[in-house]
Amino acid sequence: MPIPTPFHSRTAALCKSHEWRDWAGYLAAVTYEPTHEREYWAIRNSAGLIDVTPLFKYEISGPEALAVVDRIITRDASKCAIGQVLYTPWCNEAGKIVDDGTLTRLAEDRFRVTAADPNLQWFEDCAFGFDASVRDITAELGALALQGPLSLEILRKLAPHAEIEKLKFFRQLETKMAGIPVEITRTGYTGDLGYEVWCASTHAEKVWDLLMDAGHNYGMLPAGLAALDISRVEAGFLLADVDYFSCRKAVIAPQFSSAYEVGLGWAVKLDKSDFVGKKALQQEEQRGSQWAFAGLEIDWPELEKLFAEFDLPPQITGRASREGVPIYKNGKQIGKVTSSTFSPILKKYLALCTIEAQHAKIGTEIEMEVTVEYHRKKAPARVANTPFYDPPRKRATF
Amino acid sequence: MTYDAIIIGGGHNGLVAAAYLAKAGRKVLVLEQRAVLGGAAATEEVLPGFRFNTGAHDAGLFRQEIIDELALEKHGLSFISSPVAAFTPRLQADAPPLILWNDLKKTAETLSAISEKDAESFPRYIEHIRTMTAMLDEIILRTPPNLFENRFADLTPWLKSGLKFKRMGKQDMMAFLRVLPMSAWQFLDEWFESERLKGLLGSTSIFGSLQGPMAAGTAFMLFYQHLGAQNSGLASSRQIKGGIGQLSDALAAVVRAQGGEIHTETPVQKIVFENGVATGVQLQDGEIISSKIVISNADPKRTFFELVGARHLGPEFNRKVRAIKMKGSTAKLNLALSALPEFVNAPSGQEHLQGHIVICPSLEYLERAYDDAKYGRFSEQPLLDITIPSLLDPSLAPEGKHVMSITMRYAPFVSKKADCEHYGNHVRNKIIDTLADYAPNLRDCIEHSQVLTATEWQREYGMTEGSILHGQMGLDQLLFMRPIPGFGQYHTPIENLYLCGAGTHPGGGVTGAPGRNAAKEILKKR
User: Is the dihedral of CA B118, B120, B121, B122 positive or negative?
Assistant: First the structure.
């Protein structure tokens, strides 16, 4: 049975839809209003406030914390300055992904890692033989994502002296809001300008109230997972258990993915010191990967035609879909769509897929299976760049 | 200069591996931290004139194949056999003595005074256990297949074993599969009624492990120990002339005769490697010696966590190595005796003292001894397995005097420093008190004593947690799972680093098999 997050008294009161989902053992609102649409538009046009407490959070500290972190992740932690955040995957000895998340360097010898799945044992195993300790701080920290073009304005109102406008993309600062110590990172899962606010779970309700008050005049809305899911597909972000399986859950060979195969080759630093999976990844890099991660744009007029054969308008879910769908080239299956959504802001039907590496070139024409009135059809689609939606303000300096 | 192979540890397996490699023309160097060779199979002059087998009692399990292939007898190795396998002292003077002889008829005779039924069953039991051990005998000198990779070449030698297994016939095949995972208690209960006999026979079942005879899988060790037995039903009762150290000396002589080098008092600090390939060793004094390959005779935990370093190995691998059950449970008391102890129920003469003298009146006694150990204490009423090798080999003690070696179970490894301090003394007193009940004149005979508990095995002999077997020999830590699944072929994640100690297949005991198997694997590859 999922447990409430520290914000639950507030989120529950606002959750008119009564639609909750179990996210990593916590109750998470899917939508607050009966449909997600206003929440999505808040994220894209003003700001959305999302309870992201269910992310697993760990603190790795001690004299050799850097060495431990560097052993775990595929990116180079030694290049992570204090107050910097890195998005990174981590792999097992075979180079297959264990999980992905963010790494924040809180001090010379102290790091925080977020993860989709429990990782305490893995991190402890990686820390064995090092002078460092790993602590699960998931329950100690409340986390809220404030995402959208007006997020900066809202935060500035609450922490006017913190110079949040100077906070660069993937950086962190510590400040106070109405006397409450909080941490702010310029990170998020929507691909827009956005921040995440971290506070002691004992202060969670107060911090929520402050943000809701401050956001009121900016059209900010609390946003649920349905709106977040559309945004993250537009942003081209991976979702564990959907777009890939952790090597700890995979049971047959095709279910394992290397860091390269999920499009995170850019985050694999083979020139850094030894890390778990390096040897296997080195070999894969030389050999070439079997699979690639890609974005797809489905040809809407062609899709309309498929439905028109049955006198139907295109029927796709209003929400992002996590259904796996086969994709084809010349009649042969070449992979699968793992997430898809109609993008309200781009007015495009988008998908994320795992595709045979030789077909992953941008612009490659392929086909995606669609079921129209119980008939299997193939809609033309084109491999496209991700992120699909990438406003300059996401990483702009102000 | 570069060696072809450096062997870390001059225990018997290290020396066996070195001898085979040297014989194959490889330039080898053996590095031993102690002054004497042999590791836990050494003979040491603890007191002038008294030469003790400080670790293992005897080398009854040592493989004849190795003796022949290395011509060890030409290098000074010879055995002395005792007609008696075991004698069990009793507290009551009028109790009939229980003696196991290597002569089946004589055993049946003594048994009939205890139980007619058991006397009748005994020859059939011997036949049965021989059938069971024949299967073990078959696989001891084979490298286990790597089941993760399913290479046909790994499996072909096992086809022969498979055929042999099939030739056992359906009934014995079934029996073999049935008895292996049994407890010694359950197994012996099916054969005998005498608690004394079951206690004596079952006393080998917990050799080197922290388990009681009621634990599943303990029947396996009964069979393993029986590999060295003749017809006694127990374990080996042959000793090496001059002490077990003669075995190491003979092996060392082979190594040297082939141009190999052996350096004692040369402790290795760490294994040196570059990009995951072992290139040599660094001595404690800082000197680096390079070598094409490095072979560690140290136990897996010591090899990987101290000599290599956990940080250089993968977290999944480390987790498996950490999970190896090691905890030692064996203490050894070596006594220099001015005269022979007199046991209250002893028959006349000294013959009965020439084999093992075992204090284990019943399996329940043994299980209760384990109960203490289960909670971290040494046994209030311990199992004692005693030998007086000077009876058959007077060269081991001054004239008229004797050396007595007592193996005591259970004295579990204690990790807290405060507990270690007086542990040895407490264990020593416990052993002497226990034995003095059976041999009242014991205390008057003691000239000197040396006690070795798991603490000393770890500190002085380098065996992690004092595990004399380099890891328990439960069914979950055998064959391709020894030391850990996926690494049953003497190789390690570090290229050119191999293992050759008791932590690998087939396991502990002075067999020489791990050393020989490792050398064969290495020679196959290089």
Answer: positive
Residue of B88, B84, B69, B93 whose CA lies nearest to B16: B69
Question: Residue A189 sits in a domain of what CATH number?
Answer: 3.30.1360.120
Q: What is the extent of the structural domain holding B254? A: 3-41+62-77+243-324+468-525
- For residue B249, tell me if it sits in a domain: yes
Residue-range definition of the domain harbouring residue A353: 253-257+290-384
How much is the pLDDT for A383? 98
pLDDT score at B345: 84
Checking DSSP bridges between strand B446-452 and strand B402-409, what pairing results, if any?
Answer: unpaired
CATH number at residue B491: 3.50.50.60
pLDDT at A118: 97
The angle formed by the CA atoms of residues A136, A117 and A294, to the nearest 5 degrees, is 140
What is the pLDDT at residue A320?
A: 96
pLDDT in tens, B296-325: 999 999 999 999 999 999 999 999 999 999
Residue A242 counted as domain residue: no
Flag whether residue A130 sits within 8 Å of chain B, measured between CB atoms. yes
- All residue ranges of chain A with pLDDT < 70 are none
SS3 B239: strand
Give mean pLDDT, residues B316-344. 96
- Examine residue A284 and state whether it is found in any structural domain, yes or no: no
Distance CA A275, CA B6 (A): 28
- The total domain count for chain B is 1
A274: nearest CA in chain B? B312
Task: Classify residue B501 as exposed, middle or buried by CB count within 10 Å of its CB (0-12, 13-18, 19+).
Answer: buried
For chain B, counts of helices (H) and of strands (E): 18, 18
Q: What is the DSSP letter of B395?
A: G
In three-state form (DSSP H/G/I as H, E/B as E, the rest C), the secondary structure along A194-247 is EEEEEEEHHHHHHHHHHHHHHHHCCCCEECCHHHHHHHHHHCCCCCECCCECCC
Domain boundary (A80, A104, A136) is at A136
> Which residue type occupies B43?
T
- CB-based contact (8 Å) between A71 and chain B? yes
CA dist A289 and A258 (Å) reads: 8
Chain B residues with CB inside 8 Å of A130's CB? 310-311
Please indicate, yes or no, whether residues A116 and A23 belong to a single structural domain of this protein.
Answer: no
Residue A352's domain is classified under what CATH number? 2.40.30.110
Q: Which residue of B has its CA nearest to A67?
A: B311
* Domain at A79, CATH number: 3.30.70.1400
Angle between helices B218-226 and B195-202 (to 10 degrees): 80
Q: What pLDDT score does B236 carry?
A: 85
CB B200 within 8 A of CB B232: no
CB contact under 8 A, B311 and A93: no
Kindly determine whether residue A71 and residue B311, on different chains, have CB atoms separated by under 8 Å: yes
Confidence band of B153 (pLDDT split at 50, 70, 90): confident
Q: Residues B167-173: what's their mean pLDDT?
A: 88
Give yes or no for a cis peptide into A63 (omega within 30° of 0).
Answer: no
Whether residues A19 and A168 share a domain: the answer is yes
Provide the 10 A C-beta neighbour count for residue B476. Answer: 13
Tell me whether residue B25 is in a domain: yes
For B233-275, the pLDDT digits (tens) are 898 888 999 999 999 999 999 999 999 999 999 999 999 999 8
Check residue B285 and give its pLDDT: 95
pLDDT digits (tens, 9 = 90+) for B7-63: 999 999 999 999 999 999 999 999 999 999 999 999 999 999 999 999 998 888 999
Distance of CA A289 to the CA centre of its chain: 23
Domain count, chain A: 3
**What pLDDT is recorded for position A317?**
83
- Contact flag A93-B276 (C-beta cutoff 8 Å): no
Alpha carbon of A293: minimum distance to chain B alpha carbons (Å): 27
- Closest chain A CA to residue B311: A129
> Interface pTM (ipTM) of the complex?
0.90
